[in-house]
Amino acid sequence: MDSDLFCEGLVRRFGSNAAVDHISLDVPAGTFFSILGPSGCGKTTLLRLLAGFDKPDEGDIHIRGQRMNDVPPNRRPVNMVFQHLALFPAMSVGDNIGYGLKRRKVPVAERRKRIAGVLEQVGLPGLEYRDPQELSGGQRQRVALARCLVLEPTLLLLDEPLGALDLKLREQMKVELKHLQKQFGTTFVYITHDQSEAMVMSDQVAVMREGRFDQVAPPEELYREPATPFVAGFVGDNNRLAGELVAIRDNLAEIRLDDGSLVQGRVASGDLETGRRAELYIRPESLVLSGDALSTGFSAMQAKVRTTLFDGANSRVEAENGGQPVYARLPQDGSAPKLSAGSAIRLAWDPVLARVFGADNP
Amino acid sequence: MARSSRSTRKHAVLLSATLATGGFANATAAEELRLITWGGYAPDDVVAQFEEETGIDVQVTLSNNEDMISKLRATGGAGFDLAQPSQDRIVGVQRQFNIYKPIDFSRVDADQLQPAMVKATQDSTELDGKYYGVPSVWGTSGLIVHNSVADVVTDYTDLCDPAVAGEVSYRLKRPTLIGFAFAMGMDPFAAYDNREEYESILAKVEDKLIDCKSNVKTYWTGGDQLLALLRTGEVTAAMAWDAGGWKLNAENPEIRFVAPDSGALGWIDTFAIPRRSENEEAAYKWINFVMQPEIAAKITNESGNFTASKGADEYVKAELRDAYRASFDDSAINNIKWYPPVPPGLETMEGQVLDTVQAAN
Amino acid sequence: MRSSVSRLSLWLLLTPFLLWIVLLVLLPHLQMLRVSFQVRESWDTLTWGLQQYQNFFTESYYWRTFVRTGVMSLFTTFLTLIIAFPIAWYIARLARGRSKGILFMACLIPFWASELVRTYGWMILLRESGLFSSWLQALGWVDGPVEMLYNDVAVIIGLVYNGLLFMVVPLVTTLDGMDENLVEAGYDLGGGHGTVLREIVVPWAMPSIVSGCIVVFMLTLGSYLTPVLMGGKDSAWFTEQIFTQFITRFNWEQGAALGVLLLVLSSVIVWLGLKVSGQSLRKVMG
């Protein structure tokens, strides 16, 4: 597949601080690419470089093989859905969508047809003459999308457009966006700080931190095989257990936790050295509440129950080990023992599901 | 400590009670003279001296003829205790709007005044056998010229001479109409009561002023504006008041006030008492005070205009006396055309002429 | 019971405002309207009639001054808008921090002085012996002194200067509140500078453009000193006419009629402006 977007060594500095620090990326045509990171990680700056509102200090941006660095935003085959949508308040829905077509000198009749068409596609047929302010949040979202998609851009940039929606609508729009992307076949570059949005919708997710990509991978790989402790902690819930590395054997690292228990996990980084500090990441759903019986090869540790958190399928127990909080998923069949605050439990896991990073590894 | 705070509180209560109840009573109790007059006619030191001697508080409002009349007309003669309109602007206005009350000459110290001035003022401010004005300050309008054009401009109509094209200024006001009429050999004052004749005079003046328009740099509207124009040399000849000319002469001897060949136009500013004056007593006190020779001379020195006070001349600044003599020889003084009272309705006729002149291209 | 108390307090709160409106705005205007329909038969008798209004239409000087004043005020308003918009844009969107405040103050400072002082300022610059004239001579661009005062251009310069602040302030306020993303979206969807300005910025700023224009237009129409002092020999201004009628001609009846006509003219033009720009007074003044 051809690349719709290809960037190499992008740098954007503000003063001495590089908001975008040598970023390279390659987005194949027709895919949904997300950039996930906490606020201030530089993702918005990166997006503005792609849109053309800002220029990189170093590096190149290619769209379908064309260098874009010096092309102004109105000449780039790129459109953007803004965080607050930026629908033109003085125009009707139809005029908002027609704005770009008018700039391309599309004749009126043709324009009208295409506006009606795209409104149909985003599920808002016949709303051309409405005032955007009269629409619901979700409807306005779709108008903002339609306004870009009607221009059939090579690349659609989305700047956290779901942030302003309430939870329920956000869940719904996530799915919808994914469908729309497939339906239009347009390449989406989506930035968000919400890992669940990125996971649900994307073909590829780049996790960004301090101007750099920590890892670029499909969602599942990101979840199962985080490349850095940051990704491990940022993507999905995770427990972090700190201790001292005792030994490495068969790609398994053995750690002595601060409470003295000896546990194991898969080696995830190359900087592990025996005798140094290390961190073990294990997801709550991988922890098993075990009695005295222990499956072969499993690691286990003692913990003290703080409280239980009932949340349907996502119910958890909050416990503590050596002062650090530990969360474990409760069995969904309700077979969990009665856990009262202060009671001792034993948490066990399959070492293959745990990942161990060197603690000094940033 | 406790005692003093109690007494303070008592005082505060007393004070606020006084303020609350005595507000209106106080206004009448404190002697006050509300004077509406021209700039320079009530210098600060004169006001201070008067306040000291009489204990009367003087509130001065600066104004001009039209403004004075309008203000008094709007209130039916209230709001001021003493006014200073020109002698020709009293009778017509009084007949039409009834804003003044007659002067009680028994309360005026006539010995301080020049009898000829008193007579002239009485003649022109008489209505139904009563007199409405006491003479105060007099002056003329004529020409202010730079020496370079003094040979060219000796009368109002010379302002239209091509030699001074673009360097001339006058007002679009009635004195200009009157001055031009005299300079054109007519006598507008004699025609004041003959409407038709006055109209025909105005028609001729109108034509002349329209012809003359291209010569004019701008029609001046304020004294300061005119002085600036003459001072910078942007204008070399203008129709204006004598006092302004003498003031410029003191700064630059090249600029002089001259009485035009056809005669300077003379006016007398008077004292007149508004019909609803609230403190007539103070008004007469002020009249008698400022017409004392020494005080009157102070006013002359301040405003540049001469006074109707008898014997004030010897206290007037020497430069001013010299400038006056340079502008007026005996024949020029005899040739001064004193404004007679303006009959009602004249201003409307003149107004139309002035509008036409302004509109003309 | 409670509602009558709250109604009473509402009235009490409104009283100063109502008094102000009635005593200082409504009554004088009604009085002026009444006077304008009086005709002076002789110096002490009055009757009712339309004489003053007839005078206005038959005396070409009046209505020509009237039209001239209206047209020049409209032009001044337009020019003020054209000049104020970039200034407001700069202050609202480009200037940052301190310089923003300083620029805003720079616009405000001239208004600490009275209109008279401001007008004299311009006169010092523009007059024949003034600064501009001597600079031009010093630069050798002209041979002799140039008179730039006493013509319509000078009047318009003075009027624009007087109106500028009243245009800049509302524009800065709205432009300041405009989401930067709107402009970016305008470019992003293919618009050039002109398109973004026309299709996005101007419609956004429309209410403040209209309110600024109304204020500047009214100020200009009602200004007196600037046209009188800076105008040429035949540059009459309508307020000057009214002033002359009231003050120097003692013709209150004619003055009142001209005043009423000016009020009607300004109301009609403001109404037309609102209609054409598709704004409502409520939106513009809110």
UniProtKB/TrEMBL annotation, chain B:
An example of a Gene Ontology cellular component annotation for this protein is: periplasmic space
The main location class comes to periplasm
Q: Which UniProt keywords apply?
A: Periplasm, Signal, Transport
Range of residues in the leader sequence: 1-29
Which Pfam families does the entry mention? SBP_bac_8
Gene Ontology MF terms in the entry: polyamine binding
**Keyword Signal on entry:** yes
GO BP terms: namely:
polyamine transport
Q: Where in the cell is it found?
A: Periplasm
Q: Does the keyword Transport apply?
A: yes
PANTHER family from the entry?
SPERMIDINE/PUTRESCINE-BINDING PERIPLASMIC PROTEIN, SPERMIDINE_PUTRESCINE-BINDING PERIPLASMIC PROTEIN
The name on file for this protein is Spermidine/putrescine ABC transporter substrate-binding protein
Query: Per the UniProt entry, what species is this protein from, by scientific name?
Result: Marinobacter guineae
Q: What is the lineage of its organism?
A: Bacteria, Pseudomonadati, Pseudomonadota, Gammaproteobacteria, Pseudomonadales
UniProtKB/TrEMBL annotation, chain C:
Give a yes or no for keyword Nucleotide-binding in this entry.
Answer: no
Q: Kindly give the InterPro entries that the UniProt entry links to this protein.
A: MetI-like, MetI-like_sf
> Which chain regions cross the lipid bilayer?
71-91, 103-125, 153-172, 204-225, 256-274
Domain ABC transmembrane type-1 span(s) in chain numbering: 66-273
Task: Just give the chief location class.
Answer: membrane
The organism's place on the tree of life at top rank: Bacteria
Which PANTHER family does the UniProt entry name for this protein? INNER MEMBRANE ABC TRANSPORTER PERMEASE PROTEIN YDCU-RELATED, INNER MEMBRANE ABC TRANSPORTER PERMEASE PROTEIN YDCU-RELATED-RELATED
Name of the protein this chain belongs to: Spermidine/putrescine ABC transporter permease
